[in-house]
Batch of 2 targets.
Target 1
Amino acid sequence: MHETVKDEAERKQVTVLFADVSGSMDLAEQEDPEEWRKIMQRFFSVLADTVTRFEGTVDKFTGDGIMAIFGAPVAHEDHARRACYAALQMLDDVAEYAAELRRAKGLNFSTRIGINSGEVVAGAIDGGGDSAYTAIGHTVGLAQRMEALAEPGRAYLTESTADLARGYLDLRDLGEFEIKGASRPVQVFELAGVGQARSRLDLARERGFSQFVGREEELGRLEAALGRAKEGEASAVGIVAEPGIGKSRLYHEFAQRCRAKGLEVFEAQAQAHGKTIPFMPILQMLRSFYGIDDQDPEQLAREKIAGRSLLLDPAFADDLPLIFDFLGVPDPERPVPRMDPEGRQRALADFLCRLVGNPARRKVLVLVVEDLHWIDGGSQAMLHGLVEGMEGTPTLVLVNYRPEHKPAWAASPRYETIELQPLDRADTAKLLRDLAGSDPSLDGIDEPIHERTGGNPFFIEEIVRELAESGYLQGERGSYRLAKPIEDAGVPVTVQAVLAARIDRLDPAAKQLLQVASVVGKEVSGEALRLTAELSEEVIETAIGALIEAGFLYEAELYPQRLLAFRHPLTREVAYGTQLAEQRRATHAAAARALIELEPAERYDELSALIADHLRQGGETLEAARWSARGAYWAGHSRPRDALRLWHQAMELSDGLDDGEETAAMAVHTRLLQLQYAWRIGMSRSEEERLAAEAEEIARRQNDLHSLALLKVATSVRPGLEHSGPDWIAAVEETVELADRSGDKHLRAAVRGAGAYAYLCVADFEGFERILDEMLEIVGDDGSVGANIVLGSPIAWGLMGKGMVRRERLEFEAAEELFERALEEALKEEDAETASWIRSNQASLVMRRDPEAALAIARRNTMLTDRLGDVFSRSLALSNLAWAQLIAEEYEEALEAIEESERLYREAMGNGGELEGWRGQLRARALVMVGRTDEGLELAERAARVAGERGMLWSYPVAMLTLARARAAAGAEGVEEAFEEAERVARETGATTLLMDIEMEREQLGSSAGPAARPRF
Ligand SMILES: Nc1ncnc2c1ncn2[C@@H]1O[C@H](COP(=O)(O)OP(=O)(O)O)[C@@H](O)[C@H]1O
Ligand SMILES: [Mg+2]
């Protein structure tokens, strides 16, 4: 086990900057090489100093320029802004030196800059002994192309950088460019200057604030502090919270209230890249106090300063030269007396205190300083002096900062802190309604978004924006519609930058452990972490402590085992994304091993999909295929979508393995089983044909009769095909023969079970019962024979089929008993699918006698079947419900149910299947009964035709009966002919129950007044 922490490369979101000094080649010839070298060195140092000033890393010197990275090795959440500020500075500084060279030597220099943001792999690269930190990736290449594209004296950047820097910087859109090596045209921008926004909140203001939610208690505490300040009891409040929780917004709302009361509020903001620029926030504060604008001429600025100061107290006259100088508008007439930097700072601090504490001031002064965690030492010291010195004055100082910071005056009695909490669920929902709207399609997104963002309003806003930009949400801000499920939406780059910066502030062991945990899962047991991370127990303990302390993980459970969970799912995603694929692979494999080792074998089934996933991502392909298959079996017909996905995964995995007996068997098997789900939940025709062809090819090579028989079931015996009745029966007979030749009893039973349905659909009730009896005989008492190959429980299905035959023969009691036994068997074998079909039959059995009871059964069945996720069964359950509703005279509901049944089926299968005529006639009946007679008639005609042409004689006479009724209702011709045709076929096929219906219907129509009388179903 390693004691030390890995020092490997990482994936990082960064901004890459290329700058070169252009025109240098031909200039090199004019100048003496020595002189030339000096000039270039000076340029390089101008560029490199600027990079350092904004805390970037000079990656390398390129001969006539540099490449720099912002956001690595240590992530900065404002990497794009830093690069842009650096670029502006470089352009200025280079221009200055170039002007000097032009004057002195007549030489012409200029610089071009290219910037791009995105993911890179960053780390140390070993090169013969020494290693250098560098970044590699497409992102780098594109930055270089931007540089090549830029006009001399300009900085160009891509859309990716623009997305992060917009608002903070002024950008000019240059349009799209074809760039070599980029697959799509690239949107290019020119960096035009500094923008209006200084903080995230400025940006939010520009976009339009979201509705302010919650925070009543915090506002109350701020009001109380303000009240004290009014009484001359100066106080300071610090809001503490992680980025994005709403510190600035809370102050913004409070400042608005103060201004509304006529109070003066002055705001300043420390900047992430500002630590190296001394006194920025204090300068900002003073400039706003004096009302100085960037555009103001120096003379005007001085007048404003002098005016306001002297109005407060003529004694300030002595301080003016110092203040002019400090604020960047020195008075040539009145130079500042010479003093050392410390002396100067003291003098300024003293001035500030006198300004704030001036007795001439009556009204409360509210000073807001934001983001103290970024404040420079000088400003911090000055603020400290202010807080100490303001006692007894009407002053309220408001600051905010992140939890890792602690202000110098934390112990002051005048100081209180408020730990700002994330939004609760209700406030999150309110905010979401404001941002996204309340379209019904958005129902249910509150919860996943609250969970993903942990109630952080910034994350919530960014996620909504990201969802809108990537097409998950459609429409306008405030009134979106959900276009597709949001589960697989990515982390917005803006959020990624914030979180990556937080993760990078962890110590290396904690960071590594967080990365390992992110691979293992949302929740990780302490044990699993220990087995997966290659760190000693002590290191792990300390690291876990640090991660809990920093709020990344929390203890979700302590007993029976310690379970650690990610507080923030987004953190997990970001920590996961920072790792190199190779490193992740190893961790996934280790996580799978840990699960297998730690968990009891009884839990393997339910964990199989998870274990398979870790193994797959860990590159252990054969094992992953085996565990996927295990998971697929376990999901079975009760979770058909999971099963199909896992069979598909198992197939892809086994296809990637070398040939061998096990892989060949898997190749056939995994395809066959996917095909078993095609008719249950739908699959594209081309996919189905491809799977069948591939499976057949392999099965033939292996002379595998067993698989060939099942393949035939999947391609020409299964439900959902549109071939004619006789063809269907012929295919069944062939398959039965093939199975019998194999001699395998499981196969013989399974194939008969699957094939029996064809006899039912063509209304060959004798054939249906015969083949079921054969199947039941092969199975005997052993319920596992032939089970879960095509159908879950052959016994249940056999008993149900026999019951259906009894029902057709008017033997209702016998039918009822058989259905009951069938259901018992299905439930015992956990065959939810067959159970669903049985319940439908039970409903249809009682509906003539007790419509309400039938309705209750059908409703419950629809509900239970919904959970299956199996389209075939859901559509069937719904059409059965519609039937029961028709009998119970709930026509509107019936129409709704049958339309849903039809839609579900068509959408998944792309055709109408063998029950098209059956569903069609139900829909026709419902249409007639709600008064849409013409549509009903037309549909009844079509239903009867489709069923008749395909030889689906089970549905055909029913459709004919419906046609008779529809014609009667429409006053159309041919009522009697339709009755006769229905009766003929029902008699021929022995559908006795139907004959009875026909008889009743005829009598009713005959006895009623005229042909347009309303039929009763
Ligand atoms: N209570 C709130 N209601 C609505 N939106 C909020 C609320 N708090 C913050 N926001 C929004 O969330 C984003 C981040 O808030 P901000 O105050 O900038 O966070 P912080 O200063 O803590 O980093 C902003 O766009 C802000 O408008
Ligand atoms: Mg803020």
Note: The longest strand covers residues 110-127.
Target 2
Amino acid sequence: WEDQYTLSIRYMVSKGGSEALLQTLVDTARTASPDYDILLPLFRLLAKVGLRDKKFGQKALELEALDVTLILARKNLSHSQNLLHCLWALRVFAASVTTGAMLGINGAMELLFKVITPYTQKRTRIIRAATEVLAALLKSSNRRAVNRGYVTSLLKLHQDWHCHDAANAYVLIRRALLLCLKHIANLGSGREAFLAAQGMEILFSTTENCLDDNDLEPVVSIIIQILRQCYPKSTLPLVTATSAYTFSVPGSIPSETPCVLTEEDFEDDADEEVDKDSDSEDVKEQDDDLETDVNKLTSKPGLDRPEEELMQYEAMCVELSCNFEELESKPGDDLHFEETQDAKHSHIPTVTSPKQHCLNKDQSSWRQESQDTVQTSLLSMVKMGRSTMHPASKKGPGMNAYQNMQSSGLGIDSSGKEIPDIQVSLKQDAWDIDMISCPSISASFSNSARPTETAEVVDKLLQTYPKHLPFHDPHLYMAKSRRTRSVANFKMMAFPDFWGHCPPPSAQSMLERKRGVQRIKIFEDVQRLIQPCDVINKVVFSLDEPWSLQDTASDCLRFSSEFESGNLRKAIQVREREYDLLVNTDVNSSQHQQWFYFKVSGMRAAVPYRFNIINCEKPNSQFNYGMQPTLYSVKEALLGRPTWIRMGYEICYYKNHYRQSAAIAGGASEKCFYTLTFVVTFPHSEDACYLAYHYPYTYTALMTHLDILEKSVNPKQIYFRQEVLCQTLGGNSCPLVTITAMPESSSSDHLEQFRQRPYQVITARVHPGESNSSWVMKGALEFLVSSDPVARLLRENFIFKIIPMLNPDGVINGNHRCSLKGEDLNRQWLSPSAHLQPTIYHAKGLLYYLSRVGRSPRVFCDFHGHSQKKNVFLYGCSIKETLWQAESTVGTSTISEDITYRTLPKILDKLAPAFTMSSCSFLVEKSRASTARVVVWREMGVSRSYTMESSYCGCNQGPYQGLQFGTSELEEMGAMFCLGLLILELKSVSCSHQLLTHAATLLHADEEALDHHLQRRCSSSSSVTSELDDEPPCMEEIDYITDSSSDPEGSFSELDRQIQECAFNKDEGGEEEEGPGQGRKTTP
Ligand SMILES: [Zn+2]
């Protein structure tokens, strides 16, 4: 009936009902002795109509109803029933900003204050109505309230109500009082007055013991908002806003002196900053960003360089001209290699059995390996559909996640014995990785005894090295790290990168968000200000002031990050076991703080440590939706569990009180920062642990991996060529890998088949913080050189050109997004410069070359990581979809478009457990015009040009629903991507007859199961993934709302109810107080 009721009132309003009622009010009130038998029902009607008429305030103002109501209220200060009715009308009038301001000017505020002060529990119904009017009024009249000095009185009232309302019977009065304070706090002078009146202390002390009291929820949530709003803003505790590392870009003018951070006045009313997410593919696109210019969508721009320059890429495609004469030399060998190789090298990234990984012997010695390895084919894994996946059991806070692994056999060597002597080496502190430095660099410290010691320690360590980490070799890693050039000239290696990583035995569930965790953390933050007795505030690590490290006492953690991909800039011990951490901005930049990777040592086991990364930049994070950071324990590694695990609890991500002025931030408005907070209990005392945003994957790890891969393949079968695409600004080689099958023989037929194989081009890691993309790439590479029948078929039919790391410098120096020039390289594809963006320039050049010789790739895909969404998905390019989405119909009918761009994502949706079609998008945005995806699509005419995004977090659909990604899931995605390329080809019209026959034979055995699986995936995915919200509802507001209009300050029905109730009571003739309990019933 509510709807019907509202409708009839709306109808009445449309017919001038409001004006008629207001006019009646004015006429009646202005008579010598107003008739309250008319006025009271009239007020009730006015309030009900007013709630549903948006222009009511304006109408009341014009008809002078404001004045008469105020006069009536003044006259009836001692007549509760009449006063209450006036207050309801005022409440409706005050809802409009203009009339609110007018009421303020006309003395309504003073009147209301007279009603609500001093504290009394008599006439609570009146007090509640008056407080609610006041709150509505203060939205527009807050300045007036500050000038009148009402802040102190409001705080006093809050305290009185808090003390006397032990039964929480008057929660709504208390809430309305706090809303008054909140509106005042929107004003700089209001916050000043609030702080001067000890507002922080008062609100803090009245809330301290009821943070998790359900009855007080409406009160506590406002208090938290006020505390955050009034917390004095300050600059970050850093010397400069720019990176601690600077790199002088060749040929460019060194930037002016870095802007020094000084204390600034942030008391301006600049709270309403716009949270602009600059992350490239991370935001749901706005429609007005869509490219609607048909010419831009359809035209193909000319070369961005002289034609003759393209010839240099001929040397990177020698497969197109090579004669393979050596194939003739030893005809007998082929057979021999084929026999042994088949069972040798069958590593496929799999999430099902990491034990199996461990059983694989050192892959570099494949020639000697026995043939007992169980062969897994990727197809059989598709078939299994991850039915064997079991998430790790839910861990309670404080539990050591490593404990789940104890029984997994990871501490056992390949012969089944426990790894000896580890306990012995653990007792010495010699294993501390601080001492492992690159020999070439430590040579410069030859005066100290360290180099020899170091060598000994490393040797001793390596004797305990488990021989079971596939595709890893610490010796090789150490050798490779010597060639890696960093801006800061890192001397250390991080132990996890050196020692290697083995996936945990089971996938880890997403972390369930603890109720009220954000509020508790914020309260702890405020406590620093109010009760500083336990605050230490000691800098224990700083790249800017390394000397301050000298006197680090033993009772604090030790930090370091001066190793590849490390990027901690400063650590401050806040309390005994709480640390504020600041990560470095990207080199030559003053932004992009999100990635972190650092080492911590000197801890005690099993006690909680709180870490706060206080200079994060993005407005929201998957850390609010179940994601945990990753941790690697050196002691665990030496005990045979060299594993990055998801770790940390009480995790949340929220806006903090640090600001950067617009001038320094280089934007139009002040810049805000966000805190990522988490608690860690370490598995061992005096351990060295590494914490990272996501599983690290360094440039040196890539170079090591490529060498091992190259050694692992049988060169008679697999054409694996590793070369240098170009040198980076920082002096590192950017590798280019070519993978295909060797021609069957050097006969002209076979050579012809070899040279005619279509290309597939895959790139990754243009954004250094997206280490997940490297793990996907690792999975793809390992799969492509494996003996899996699918991989063999892929090699026999395609030439893979892979650039696994487009931004080595960024990765090495711990950047999140940029190159050493401080640029997002994925915004440079339109016109890259050979000198400033060499990797992009040459990647584009190679693609140009392929295009010019008529060999554009079947698929181009650039692997990325996504910080806001879950699952894995593709972005592609479609003219028609873009125009449709933009509702632009110009010329769409005449445009013909190859619609096969949707085929690959559809295939992956069926094959890959982590992949979902529902997040894919094929829109071309203006702001993405210079990304790899769009440029390769437009300029090279590759219709299947993609960005593949993998979540940092995990999946909310499919077999992995509710799980965080481990490295195995990411690697599996890489392998599945390759399988997808094969199936895509089988579905294409250009697919060769030969491939179809081969694939038919291969797939036949699995056909039934595969079909079955695909169908199942199809039907289940359509029901599970359809229109799933990207995020589950977060239980708390991520941040306080500065726009107070969106506050639910009492709904229509709430005032309706009050009026209804009162009318009922009035019939009984009594004037009742609002009884205990009534307030609580309506608690939202
Ligand atoms: Zn990216």
Note: Residues 280-281, 767, 770, 864 surround zinc ion (CB under 6 Å).
